[in-house]
Write a structure and sequence with these properties.
The structure is a homotetramer of 207-residue chains. Chain A has 207 residues and is mostly helical. Chain A has eleven helices and no strands. Chain A has a single domain, classed as Tetracycline Repressor, domain 2 (Orthogonal Bundle), CATH 1.10.357. The structure holds a DNA duplex (21 and 21 nucleotides).
Chain lengths: 207, 207, 207, 207
DNA sequence: AATGAATGAGTTTTCATTCAT
DNA sequence: TATGAATGAAAACTCATTCAT
């Protein structure tokens, strides 16, 4: 993904991220919300993007690429399945924007709106982009290489198993009213151990 | 939930369900889409609901209640954790509307839009309504009662474990391009076995 | 052309005609100009027309049909070429709106804008509509039947000969600054006699 | 009309002509269309013209002056009315841009838009500019001097007679779908003969 | 002098909601 | 009660013009 963004585009992308952090549904965002927050004129957005959907889908993809790219880079140095899972969960705890971005991204991938269609197209046409699916795959590779998890299980199933935990943890945090008082460290451990029980090597379990 | 709906309300609720089955995002639905499909006048919707959000959230909650209520009733006769999980997954395969309803419902619970707020309020003020969380809880109860799963694990964790699998399976089916050629029976089995490995009794695993 | 227009459509068409009479170029007219003058809400225009161009082209065609239809009906009772030409010129003198409508209509037929394209399509798909070309044809028929003009000349040429005089007279009236003081009766006579000299029976000229 | 145009202005005028040749209505042209085609920066247009209307009206007048000036110069050597008419019609056939420029020019003179007002002002304030009206006048002078046409008829009428034929021929060519297969040579002859019958010396006709 | 990125006033268009029938 | 025509507030989008470089 191109790194040298024009300052205006950077401002627009930043504004989209800010809105996401404030829990605004990107499907309902107005162009003037974005440009206003970016501190630029409304017309300027249209100098860089042909319409609202292009702008939002680009911003979302950019951030997803940044977030997942960073995580994948950090994880690449890890040799342990648990460590990488813990790292991902910790990122979502620390940086709310990552969690919210992930949620909106996955939601958009499964609805049928105009932004969704653009996202799918862009992902299809640019295999370089880092998206959660790739991150999940990487974590699985680590686990398999290391022998933490059982490579015999079908890949689609393993993808679901890992992705669902990560996503559901994100959802869970937004839904629980008492999330603040909730012991996240413990939940991380439980989720990770659960995944290992689920995906772990069969022989390991009998050891 | 009140059972004796006026025929107009029934028509409106039915129209919302139809739209959901056609993969339309309820956040983008127009009042005229709903009333048109329901075969009634646009103004009539406002005789029964104060605004669009009230209409949509009521419809969604009604269907969720119906779907989950039906499932909970069917499951109540089952004594086995696996059987109930298989039943739920099968329902989502057979009746696309259930799957899509579930997805939209969960998405709405986690976004911050006007429909979301109404949904939360209504759920809070009417503990009778059957929602996916309740269904999950019931499945867990069965598993615990039966001894299929280990009751020692914390409830929030178990809820995530079960709910996330079901939801991710739903997402997965909508996202995968090759979903058609995808062996669902096998995936059901894998998911169910995975959950048992994850949540199952520790001693059971060594048996 | 359908006669029973809804009152709102009638108001919209009337407003377009008023604007034309005020010498406003229909290509630059705003929807709010039209609805404001029609005394109805802006949104109402979109209940009847899918966009601005549809509205304007429909209005123009409607008026052209009315004007030409009326003229053709009045002329049908005439047996003389001169009489019908005089009648047409007189109409343009008396009712400025007819003249201006004619001018805008012909201009639109020859530009390449969005309204022009719609006009051409509509004319092609509805051969019932009365347009200046039809009126010209009718006048020629009268002249030929009566023997005032020479039927041997090619039709395209005769069409140009008649149409150009009518249109140019209309242009002329808008362009001449001193048009007010100008003796129109005399000009009518000259134009008519000129046409007869141009198109008249060859043998007649030698009589 | 000043001959030594700055290269930028020349480029702008050329761009306007190109657009006219492509049948674009100058009233709908964007500044960026013109500057883009001229290969210069958008801001540069405002170094030479105070606004879009100034630019377009100047360009149009420049080209009209060039075209009519050239024609008037060529015609000045001719001694025959027919020859000059044939020459004008032939120019419109050969150089579409001349025909289209003429049409747009006449249309602009009769609408009431901002460009129209500027055109009228400039023509009024600079009697040197060659415009179609002058060309028509010259052709008439030749005809009268030569004795081809009857000088007794009022000048306004004769202007209409000549101008309208030329203009209508231009219109006709753009409007007729089958213009391609249409025998232009024959039409030229018919139009010219028609004008002579219409305007020619009464005594000549009996010769 | 030349530029083109940035702007925002001005349009078109949409659609939830109202209200006369 | 039921309706759907009418509305106008709100949103998307355009483009002439400016101005810092």
């Amino acid at each position: 993904m191109k790194e040298n963004l024009s300052p205006k585009v950077k401002a627009l992308y930043g504004a989209v991220l800010e809105l996401i952090e404030e829990n605004v549904d990107v499907r309902n965002v107005k162009v003037s919300d974005i440009t206003g927050r970016a501190g630029i004129g409304k017309g300027t957005a249209y100098e860089y993007f042909s319409n609202k959907e292009e702008l939002i889908s680009s911003a979302l993809l950019y951030h997803m690429d940044q977030i997942c790219g960073q995580m994948m880079s950090d994880i690449s140095g890890m040799e342990d399945f648990s460590e990488s899972i813990h790292y991902i969960l910790m990122c979502m705890d620390r940086e709310i924007s990552k969690r919210d971005c992930l949620i909106q991204f996955i939601q958009l991938l499964t609805d049928n709106g105009p932004i969704s269609k653009l996202l799918h197209d862009k992902i299809k046409n640019n295999s370089e982009i880092c998206i959660p699916q790739k991150l999940t795959e990487q974590v699985l590779q680590i686990g398999i290489r290391r022998g933490d998890i059982d490579g015999q299980l079908p890949l689609p199933y393993m993808r679901i198993a890992v992705m669902s935990k990560i996503l559901m943890y994100a959802f869970y945090m937004t839904m629980e009213e008492d999330a603040a008082g909730f012991d996240r460290q413990q939940m991380h451990r439980l989720l990770c151990e659960g995944m290992l029980r689920e995906l772990g090597r069969t022989d390991a379990k009998n050891m």
